[in-house]
Every structure is written in structure tokens, then in C-alpha cells.
Amino acid sequence: MNAEVQLSRLPVSAPVAIIGGGATGTMIAYHLLRKRRDLGAGSVVIFEPRPRLGAGVAYGSKDPQHRINVPASRMSIDTERPDDFADWFKWHSHKTCDPEAFLPSGDVYPTRAEFGRYLFERITPFLVNETLQHVQDTVVSVHHTGKYWQIRTAHGAIYTAAYVVIATSHPAPALPTPLKGIAHDPRVISDPWAKDVFKTIDPRARIAIIGTGLTMADVVATLAAQGHLGPITAVSRRGLRSRGHSHGPASLFGDFSTNPEQTARGLLRRIRKTLASASERPWQDTLDAVRRQGKTIWTALPVVEQRRLVRHLRPFWDVHRFRIAPQVERALNLRSETGLLTVLAARVESAEAAPDGLTLHLRERGERSRTVHADILINTTGPDHAGILTKPGFLSRLAQDGFVQRDPVGLGLWTDKDHSALVDGLPVSGLLVAGPLSRGTFGELMGFPEVTANSQSVASRLADILQISIYSEQVHL
Fold first, then answer.
1. What is the pLDDT of residue 95?
2. Residue range 2-171+385-475 in CATH 3.30.230.10
3. Residues with Cβ < 8 Å from 416, sequence gap 6 or more?
4. How many other C-beta atoms lie within 10 A of the C-beta of residue 376?
5. Alpha-carbon distance 449 to 24, whole Å?
6. Strand, helix or coil for residue 283
7. Positions of CATH 3.50.50.60 in the chain
């Protein structure tokens, strides 16, 4: 046993270490190793505690009610092969026994687990040829030692790398402050992504849900599928539900990148004007055009206007941008029509726990008070990106050591346009940030197409850096 412990503490070196093996980290490894086929065994190490790369929080769910939120034709590991997943699923669909994935329109919405399997299959060749090493462990600290980064895992292993990529996209949700007093009550589900967390809920239980976006929709669909028939009350400040997709073929409409707006108000005015000029078209066409041009739109805004945009317009953007799959939308609509799902626009002021249930004290619009009684409380407020540097973990330690900072807008980590971490406006050598944690720099970075493009860009940056490093070493021989 001592020999095993001693062995696990020996340093292992690799040019590139990727922390996080969900979709973002897996795609970075995939594109880097495709670009640099000259890299040898163990050139890239990826740290992911889950047994399979590519799944992560987003695509690790085995719940058949959890589906991708856009058609398969718009999901791919490679922007240059947009039909890759759709083609893959067509060849594998006979194995899934999932007729509900296929809609009369011709669109296909597979389960998220199926997309996770696709990502794993695409990365597998690099695991087989050992250019990529999957370390099934959690990173607890990252330290800079001279020219290299030293990475320590929960099991005590130590690795060194010349370049580190932070690709941990989705931190665990945080319970809203007014609910902290009942956080440890077993009837409070603070993390809806935890495995089998809904299995023991009584079919007649009264349920309160905090949050009314995509995660709430997933929760309601899951509960409906397992036979839940009790009342559900979902609460958010504005009471906005995620919207659905248009029924016709997608078609972008609107130019927002030519002479981009310099203020949040100007951008909103321009979007409204574009919508009004195309009243015969579905609103999704215009919002998809905004999304496609999001990086240009975002980077044209001064920081003060970016903050204003996030503060005032983000909830409206989120529900129109993050649309739900038609199958999930049907489940929500049925619940609403039968009176089993109520969505409230209110803020939670306080909560109490008693033997016979939980009580939420709400303040609705117009300052009316309202009380909701529930047997179960579920938090669906989404990833706690705002708290990434305050919770225990390797990121908070990196911040304490002066290697990462929150971005000026407060959406994630501060980076430059080349994906390097920034501290006091200066790039940190050898430390890159990828995926949703870098959206303060790039804008829209929660949707899969944008994450794919971002991952490819990070991989290209790494490929160039490694080429320069190798050339420099050869020159100095």
C-alpha cells in the first residue's frame, strides 16, 4: 500500500493539462490533437472525475427526459462539419430505442446522454493511442513553479505541465441567501443535478421550485415522467419561462455587427426595430442573428454598458435565447393547462421549516406578500458563476496566489482575446481559460455552437504556442 501511495506522488509531466473533461475540455483536447498529430504519448492530460470524457454536467444526465435544446443538425464537435452529430445519431439511432427524438417537422432532439456518448466516441481514438491521458480525479490545487504549473489531485497525485487550461464550465448551484437558513433540511434539494435526487419524492408532494428557466423545465419533465401529480409552484423575480423553437426552418434576420451599438439602450432599440420590421417572421430569426453576432456586439460595448446589459436585460435574453426542446415544452404546457404548474413573478424574502412542511414568504410585483407551502423545495437557479473564486477549490487558491481574477462584468474569469487569464490587465503566462467561464470577454458563451467555436479557438492557440516552443527549443540546442 505504501508503494502505491509513493508512486501516486511522483511528478508526471505533460505539455498541456486541461482541468475539466466535460464538453469544453474534451473538445479542446480533440481539436488540439487533430491539429498537432506529431504530439507523442501523454502530451495532453485531462482531469475529470467522471469515468467518461465529454459528459460533464450538461451531457452526463441519464434521464431520458433531458434532451438537447436545439435540433441535432445544429450540434457538432466541429464547426467545419456541422452535420457530424446528426449523421452520427442517424447511424446509431437504432440502438437508442427513442422514437420521441424524431419530430414530424424532421427535426431530431436526442437525449443529452446520447450527445455525451457522441463526444466520448469522437475523443476515444486519442485515448487509445495514448496521446491523451484521462486522469479520473479532482484537481485541488494549481501552483506555479518556475516555468511550469504543478497540479495536485484529491488522491495526492502531482502533475506538471507547461500550459494549463481551465475548462470547468459549470460550478454547482448556490442556494439563494433567503433560503440559507433551511439549507440543511433534507427536504431542500439545493443541487438538482445530483444523481437520483428526485427518485424518492412522493407523487402527491407539493413542490416549490426556485428559478423558472431551463433547469426548472427539466425538473418538471422528470417529475411528470415518474408520475408526480402534486402541485408545483415555480418562482423567479420576473416569472419568465424559457421559450420554444419556431416551427419553420431557421433563417437569420438582422444586422447588428455593422456599426455595432455602444450602449445597452441603443442595442435594445435596434433589436426592437428589427423585430418590428419583420413582423411576419418568427422572432427566433432575429434573436438567432443577435446570438450569431454576439461576440462583435459584446466587445463593442464599454464595460459599464456590458454591466447594464447584464443587470437589466439578461433575464429576458436568457428565456428567449435558451429555448427548450419541444418534448419538454409539451410537458410544461400540459402541467400549466391542468393547473399543476404555477409560475410566479416574485422574490423570496424568507423561509421556514416545520415538521409538516416548508413555508416560503414571497414578495410579488406590486409589493403584495404571498405564502407558499411545500413539502419539497428544489433550487434551479443555475451554475453559481458569481461565486467561483469564493468557494473552496483550486480556483480560489489560484485567485489567492494572484493568477486569476473575476472579469469586470462578474460573469466568470478575466481573460484576453487570446484566452490567457488576466490579472490587473496583464496576461498570465501559460494559463488559459475556456468555455463559459470566459464569457465576460467574449459575450454569449453558454450555447453549444459558441462553446464549440471557443474550444476550437483555444485549441488553435495552444497548437501555435506548442509549435513556437518546439521551434525555440530547437534553435537553442
1. 64
2. no
3. 422, 427, 441
4. 23
5. 11
6. helix
7. 2-171+385-475, 177-243+323-379
Residue 205 near residue 313 (C-beta atoms within 8 A): no
| DSSP for residue 181 | G
Q: How far apart are alpha carbons 57 and 212 in whole angstroms?
A: 19
Helices (H), 40-105: 56-59, 84-92
Residue 2: pLDDT above 80?
no
- CATH dotted code for 177-243+323-379: 3.50.50.60
The pLDDT mean for the chain works out to 91
How far, in Å, are 184, 224, 240, 340 from residue 232 at the CA level?
21, 11, 15, 6
Question: What nine digits make up the cell of 328?
Answer: 419538454
Q: Which three cell numbers stand for residue 149?
A: 504549473
For the stretch 420-469, pLDDT in tens is 999 999 999 999 999 999 999 999 888 898 999 999 999 999 999 998 66
> What would the grid cell of residue 5 be?
501511495
Residue 131 CB neighbour total at 10 angstroms? 20
Cα distances (angstroms) measured from residue 161 to each of 223, 305, 375, 428, 429: 44, 38, 49, 15, 12
CB neighbour list of residue 276: distance below 8 Å, 6 or more residues apart: none
pLDDT at 198 over 60: yes
Per-residue model confidence (pLDDT) at position 333: 95
Q: Does the predicted TM-score (pTM) go above 0.70? A: yes
As given in the structure block, the three cell numbers for residue 204 are 402527491
In sequence order, the β-bridge partners of residue 359 are 352, 373
Q: Helix or strand or coil: residue 146?
A: coil
> Which residues are paired to 406 by β-bridges?
413
